[in-house]
Amino acid sequence: MRGPKGVGRKRRSSPRDVVSWSTLFWCTLFVVINCALFSGFSFYAFRFLFGKTFQPILVLTWPAPSNKPISPITISVREVVMFPDQALVFLNNYPPTAQVFTKDDLHCVYFSANHSSRSQPRFNQPPIDIDGGDFHNQIVRCPLPPRLLTVSVGLKHNDDVPVLPSYSWDWLAYDALVDRDNTTIVFVKGLNLRRERISNTEKFECVYGWDFRTTRFLLRSDVVSIAQEIVRCKTPLSVLSFPRGPNNTVKVSVRVKGGGAKGILDTIARPAIRPGLANPTHRKEHEMCLCSMVRNQGRFLKEWVMYHAQMGVQRWFLYDNNSDDDSVVVIEWLRRANYNVTRHAWPWLKTQEAGFAHCALRARETCQWVGFIDVDEFFHLPSGLLLPDVLRNQSNYDYVGEIRASCYSFGPSGLRRVPVQGVMVGYTCRLAAPERHKSIVRPEALNSTLINVVHHFHLRNGYEPVNVDKGVLVINHYKYQVWEVFKEKFYRRVATYVADWQEEQNVGSKDRAPGLGTRAVEPWDWSHRFCEVRDSGLRDRVLQSFVDPQSHLLPWQEEGGDGVVQVQQQQKVIKRSVMMMRKIRARRKHRVFL
User: Fold this and answer.
1) Which of these, 66, 173, 240, 437, has the minimum number of CB atoms within 10 Å of its CB?
2) DSSP assignment of 29-83, as one string?
3) pLDDT in tens, 513-556
């Protein structure tokens, strides 16, 4: 049955419903011509009516540039850590146009610790120092804030000061890195575990996340090993796939089980990748390296590095523990002289064992053997051999993981002033018996716990330490130098399990000088103490092999006048040039990013 007309049927198109292209073209052309004629008529009409009195004014919708220079320099604070004597403010390494800041650029800004009144700064102070040679790793050292106040850092020409929570040094996870096996190694302070003992992993767990005030949003993982101040954790897959770097927002900490959120260590530790070799048994770039933790050893570094370079050392890792002398300048000088010296800022107090473990992991990538000694300790080879000769002889045995050398302690040797020719020539009288040993280790042989005590490590199964003969290799330890140098040891000891000398603890320890007690008061006979055996073996070798035949000077000496004064003057000149070069480099980077 058909419906009404037009319902349910498709309407057929007729030729009249279609507009041809030629018709559309002529219509469009007609409209355009009329618009042009109308515009022209309007313009001439305004000219006829108003003549030259009408002048159109161009109004800029984009704001005109200001005469004041626009500075792109900003500052971003990552964390603040409170030490007993100062506050450390860690700067972020972004934006990428950031510059290397100096003490003249910044000031320390003090606020109330109360969150509600943090917007009003109380007062400013100049920083004690700024550590770090580039914007990737700058630490501002500020005077410790008074009670109930906290501190941050701001630019002197900018009122915008970032304020972040501060952490106490006694309860903190302060560094972390991801090892070859994808475990995370966390360096902590505050667990107070026993020395040289492996602790029970069941009492702890590792936690990853962004906000550690509650345990609800944290990733948990098992502890693989824990000893002294080093924790090794299983790393969650989601953390391994997350981008890592200095400004990585994912942090890691350690939680004492049963303690809830209060049992979690405060943390500034972000897991950084530590690339390993694809083939750990492959021959490495350097046969012999040295690692040392230093504080204010600038005036002795040249002698220590130059001498050991001649003995066969190829690479030096210096962990700077809050130096405030010219160590940075001397290291820069050595680098310019083509010595492969690297300075690593290590501000953490009384963490020598953790620092050596950190250094061993870094050195493992390129070093076959690594010696762990102080800057006042020198390898002496009475046989006339070089260090690579000794290492090759020991490398014939696959089970050797550590070479131990006896350590002889030298006294002031009758001197009252720092010897101009250096410690090896100046100090020639020592105690008869060795006090302890120091070690050269194979980084691949270290136990996964990274336990180390007084410069020697625990080894993996299958490796053993060997004692090298005293006629082949010993260490001259210039421990008891002139009083001007020795009294610095009273400031603070760097080892975790060694009491500071001002404390009434372990007064009879071999680490201390016998009979001195806890006060830095020079005994009347100091210059003649600790002298039982005259030993000029190393002195004679140095004078025979290192003296310049024309100037009659040693390589680390300065020509003419008082050597100490000349070194200080040269260091000031180098320091100014180094700071100028850093600023120029920073400006170039800034222009590139702009």
Assistant:
1) 66
2) HHHHHHHHHHHHHHHHHHHHHHGGG-------SSPPPPSSPPP-----EEEEEE-
3) 666 766 778 889 999 999 999 999 999 999 999 999 999 999 99
Chain centre distance of CA 107: 22
The pLDDT value recorded for residue 512 is: 57
Q: Return the top range by mean pLDDT from 43-47, 232-236, 584-588.
A: 232-236
Pairing of strands 129-131, 139-143: antiparallel
The total of other beta-carbon atoms located within 10 Å of residue 436's CB is 15
DSSP class per residue in 491-557: T---STTS--TTSSSSTT-TTSPTT-TTS----TTGGGSS-SEE--HHHHHHHHHT--TTT---TTS
Amino acid at 247: N
3-state DSSP percent of the chain in helix, strand and coil, to 5: 25, 25, 50
The torsion defined by the Cα of 577, 582, 588 and 593, in degrees rounded to 10, comes to -170
Alpha-helix runs per DSSP H in 342-386 = 352-363
Question: Quick one: CA dihedral 22, 23, 25, 29, positive or negative?
Answer: positive
The CA distance from 374 to 48, in Å, is 95
Confidence at 571, pLDDT banded by 50, 70, 90: very low
If you average pLDDT over residues 496-517, what whole number do you get? 57
d(CA 492, CA 475): 24
Q: Tell me the pairing of strands 400-409 and 464-467.
A: parallel
The token pair at 204 is 């702890």
CA distances from 198 to 145, 179, 203, 227, 309 (A): 38, 19, 12, 5, 37
Which letter does DSSP use for residue 150 in this model? Answer: E
Decide: residue 137, CB within 10 A, 0-12 exposed, 13-18 middle, 19+ buried.
middle
Q: Under 8 Å CB-to-CB from 1, ≥6 apart: which residues? A: none
E-only strand ranges, 549-592: none
Higher pLDDT, 203 or 506: 203
**Strand order from edge to edge, sheet including 204-209:** 219-221, 204-209, 251-256
Q: What is the pTM of this model?
A: 0.79
Per-residue pLDDT at 414 exceeds 80: yes
Q: What is the pLDDT of residue 338?
A: 97
Contacts of 102 (CB under 8 A, 6+ apart): 130, 579, 583
What percentage of residues in the chain have a pLDDT greater than 70?
71
H and E: helices and strands count for the chain: 10, 30
The first and second tokens of residue 438, run together, are 């120091």
Residue 183: pLDDT band with limits 50, 70, 90: very high
Whole-angstrom distance, CA of residue 126 vs CA of residue 147:
19
DSSP class of residue 366 equals: T
Separation CA 517–CA 503 (nearest Å): 9
